[in-house]
Amino acid sequence: MGADDAVVATQGARDSAFKFASRLQIKVLSSGVFDAIVKRYSTEGQRLSLEDIEGQWRKVTLGPSNVATLMETARLEVSKGIDFATLNHWVDDAVRLLKEARDRERPMIGPITRAFYYCCALVAIAADYLGREHVLSDHDARKKHFRSGMIFGQNDDAAAKRYL
User: What range defines the domain where residue 9 resides?
Assistant: First the structure.
């Protein structure tokens, strides 16, 4: 595997997802990679199926909508392609969810916190993908690449400075 390869890890992908990823030259790690980790570090009460989590997300209001709608919108961004606009969208969602979780969940282990972690995973995937050509560059070159991408469409680079 090269330093610029895209990799997606999953525990529940269907065969069609593996075929789709193969066409896009994305390597997919299957559930075997995670089985030992899941067995050791999660208990049955903490481990939820996607359907259960989405059910919880539907019950949590977030402005005029709910967390499930926000997360569905985040997932749909992938179909448009991963670019800096998508990364910015996911970073904004993660920040919003962290604030909501901090204000509404004690301890922070509820559905909003789970949605926050999900957004963080999307941010990590996007950052990995968008930085693939600069993976062996020096720190300043990588930072410049991300700064120029993150401030696209914004009036100043204050947001980029906060996240970088």
Answer: 1-45
Q: What gap in Å lies between CA 3 and CA 136, rounded to an integer?
A: 8
Is 156 in a helix, a strand, or coil?
A: coil
pTM exceeds 0.85 for this model: no
Tell me how far CA of residue 47 lies from CA of 31, 43, 53, 94, 99, in angstroms: 14, 6, 10, 21, 24
User: Given a cut of 90, is residue 58 above it in pLDDT?
Assistant: yes
| 135 and 57 share one domain | yes
User: Based on the domain organization, do 132 and 69 belong to the same domain?
Assistant: yes
Helices 111-130 & 50-59, crossing angle to 10 degrees? 120
Burial class from Cβ neighbours inside 10 Å (0-12, 13-18, 19+) for residue 150 reads buried
148 and 131 within one domain? yes
Number of domains in the chain: 2
